[in-house]
């Protein structure tokens, strides 16, 4: 069944290749109208069941998810707990370390200063930091430039030379220690030769913000970005006083024993510009909507629209022709549609922020586990919701049947896993759990009458019947398929 995909998503690749024009009618759609459309409702039901399955089967302590469409956070939900000890639920207000998503705010800061005439992207780093004295280990290399810092092509090492990713104390260096240690480090590659993801590079970008603005880095970001955008729950630090309450407790990746341990608070100090921020689904949704609004309506007090477009374009292509980066943003293609994104991974937290600017769609996934599947979930969400949102631009004229009595999760003991059955339009969609690909996990059932459905292939070929047995309360209790019963578990 895993290989039988829902025909509702067979068109994902095709629809991702086509435009999603913004018409007057489309612009007039309200959040409520979008959510009420059978295709959107079905897609979200499938996403919801899938993420819940991932959270439970992979034993992720907590997951918070948000889907953004233009100026609305059209759907959000929390799964599991932000604090396992107190069973505090994860939700859209829960704070997580967003770690390297912090780099987007640093990149925006640099571009603000560029637009103000304080620097040029092609400037050598040493023109702005007179203490930038790392040893260039490669003869004939050009200088590391500001642009190369933001595209991870500077040739610099990945980290300042301290073991700050090791617990339990996570000894992040101070600013003074980063500067002092730089003199005994050396470059890994010639500048502008290879992609090498580098927290050190974005740390130095933050130092350039400090130098050119004359302000402390955190003060600058708060004044020039966070406050103007109304991101009141986004901070440049780990709010220890909120830990276990609004701030989710981070947990280790899964041990071979199948357990996780809580991770101690950490303070990024000298590398805050690369990894120090904390935020929530609600705040990052505002950050996404601001970008869609800026691109459509033009300049505002924070950034020029053309500057954001510049950041979203590819500025670096690695010699492997697979790794591409914009200014701060990871720029990639999903089914030939451009996605701009950034992930984050700090002790106890894995997060993802992903946008498809052309269609004004965003997916945000925040987890409090050192092996949280945030990137995978965000990609699955975007692929699933995109064609549904396109369909929502056309009103549904047919009245949909009510299949709610069949919805639920079913299993067949002693076999593992379960089937999540949800309504999608005038059909049922069945999601095989556990699974690591939502598209591959789904199959589709067509109603034949009474309590009988037939499974359809990708080509609409009819296969075996699925018969639901309904109890006295009107809800399905079992499914009979291939001479096997599956019993409702919830």
What does this 3D model show about the protein?
By secondary structure, this protein is of the alpha+beta class. The chain folds into two domains: 7-58 and 397-488, Lipocalin (Beta Barrel), CATH 2.40.128; 96-372, DD-peptidase/beta-lactamase superfamily (Beta-lactamase, 3-Layer(aba) Sandwich). Helix content is 29%, strand content 23%. The strands form four sheets. It has an eight-stranded antiparallel barrel with strand order 12-13-14-15-16-17-18-19. Helix 4 (38-57) runs antiparallel to helix 13 (374-392), helix 5 (102-115) packs parallel to helix 8 and helix 5 (102-115) crosses helix 9 (217-226). The chain is elongated. The protein starts with 11 loop residues before the first helix and ends with a strand. Mean pLDDT is 93; it is low at 1-26.
In the CATH hierarchy, what is the class of the largest domain?
Answer: Alpha Beta
Low-confidence runs (pLDDT<50, min 5 residues)?
1-26
User: Which structural class should the secondary elements be placed in?
Assistant: alpha+beta
Largest sheet report: 8 strands, antiparallel, barrel
Shape: elongated
Please indicate the count of domains.
2
Backbone CA Rg:
24 Å
Helix content: 25-40%
Helical element count?
A: 14
Tell me the fraction of residues in β-strands, as a range. 15-25%
Can you say what the CATH homologous superfamily of the largest domain is? DD-peptidase/beta-lactamase superfamily
The assigned CATH architecture of the largest domain is 3-Layer(aba) Sandwich
What gap, in angstroms, lies between the N and C termini?
21 Å
Mean pLDDT over all positions: 93
């Amino acid at each position: 069944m895993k290989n039988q995909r829902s025909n509702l998503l067979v068109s994902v690749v095709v629809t991702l290749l086509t435009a999603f024009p913004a018409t007057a009618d489309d612009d007039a759609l309200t959040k409520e109208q979008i959510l009420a459309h059978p295709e959107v409702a079905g897609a979200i039901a499938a996403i919801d069941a899938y993420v819940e399955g991932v959270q439970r089967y992979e034993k992720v302590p907590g997951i918070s998810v948000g889907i953004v469409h233009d100026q609305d956070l059209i759907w959000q939900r929390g799964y599991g707990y932000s604090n396992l000890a107190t069973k505090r639920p994860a939700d859209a207000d829960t704070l997580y370390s967003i770690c390297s998503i912090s780099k987007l705010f640093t990149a925006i800061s640099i571009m603000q200063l560029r637009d103000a005439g304080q620097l040029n992207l092609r400037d050598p780093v040493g023109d702005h930091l007179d203490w930038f004295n790392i040893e260039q280990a490669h003869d004939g290399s050009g200088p590391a430039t500001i642009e190369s810092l933001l595209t991870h092509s500077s040739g610099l090492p990945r980290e300042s030379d301290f073991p700050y990713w090791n617990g339990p104390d996570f000894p992040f260096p101070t600013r003074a220690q980063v500067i002092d240690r730089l003199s005994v480090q050396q470059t890994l590659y010639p500048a502008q030769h290879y992609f090498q993801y580098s927290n050190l590079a974005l740390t130095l970008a933050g130092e350039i913000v400090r130098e050119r603005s004359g302000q402390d880095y955190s003060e600058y970001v708060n004044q020039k970005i966070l406050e103007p955008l109304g991101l009141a729950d986004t901070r440049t630090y780990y709010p220890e006083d909120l830990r276990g309450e609004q701030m989710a407790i981070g947990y280790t990746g899964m041990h071979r024993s199948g357990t996780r341990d809580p991770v101690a608070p950490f303070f990024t100090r000298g590398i805050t510009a690369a990894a120090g921020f904390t935020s929530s689904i609600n705040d990052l949704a505002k950050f996404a909507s601001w970008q869609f609004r800026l691109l459509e309506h033009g300049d505002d007090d924070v950034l020029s629209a053309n500057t954001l477009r510049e950041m979203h374009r590819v500025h670096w292509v690695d010699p492997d022709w697979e790794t591409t980066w914009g200014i701060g943003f990871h720029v990639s293609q999903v089914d030939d549609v451009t996605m701009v994104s950034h992930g984050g991974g700090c002790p106890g937290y894995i997060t993802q922020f992903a946008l498809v600017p052309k269609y004004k769609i965003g997916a945000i996934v925040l987890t409090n586990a050192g092996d949280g599947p945030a990137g995978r979930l965000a990609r699955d969400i975007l692929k699933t919701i995109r064609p549904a949102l396109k369909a929502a631009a056309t009103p549904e004229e047919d009245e949909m049947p009510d299949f709610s009595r069949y919805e639920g999760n079913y299993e067949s003991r002693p076999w593992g896993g379960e089937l999540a059955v949800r309504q999608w339009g005038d059909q049922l969609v069945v999601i095989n759990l556990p699974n690591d690909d939502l598209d591959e996990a789904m199959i589709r059932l067509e109603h034949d009458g009474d309590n009988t459905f037939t499974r359809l292939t990708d080509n609409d070929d009819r296969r075996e019947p699925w018969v639901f047995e309904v109890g006295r309360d009107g809800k399905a209790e079992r499914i009979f398929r291939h001479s096997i019963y599956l019993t409702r578990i919830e």
